[in-house]
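Input sequence (150 aa), recorded before submission:
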Amino acid sequence: MTVSDVAILVVEDNPDHRELTVTALRECCDPARIATAEDGVDALDYLLARGAHEGRDVRKQPRLVILDIRMTRVHGVDVLRAMRADPRTQSVPVVMLSASTEKAELDSCYEAGANSVVRKSLDYDELRWKMRKVYDFWMTVNEANRASRV
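Predicted structure, token format:
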């Protein structure tokens, strides 16, 4: 398994939330195909092959990015805008995770180019159900954008 085989990139700055999300995804996705980023800077470094990820083949992007909205260092919407502005990542599907119920914040995700917004859940069974639905749609139902992959 190489980093080019990553199917899902989970970007979450809260280690507990990141672990719960990844644990839920592992029930339906090969754990070796799930990568994580601790914050928006780390995510952009991975996606754009900068810093610690320099030399990664940027033509091989994840099939899906699950991106927290409220993060330190770089806000999730800013990561999304950077992805949409770069031809190498502009077509990668992005599902935003939000604990917010503020309509303006959720709308800002769609305005920036999110494919979907999913509300975080404090109930683990509900989170598992949501991650299963996200996985099922984006990895098994949705046809991948072949123009964005090698």
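Checked by second reader. DSSP finds five helices and five strands in the chain.
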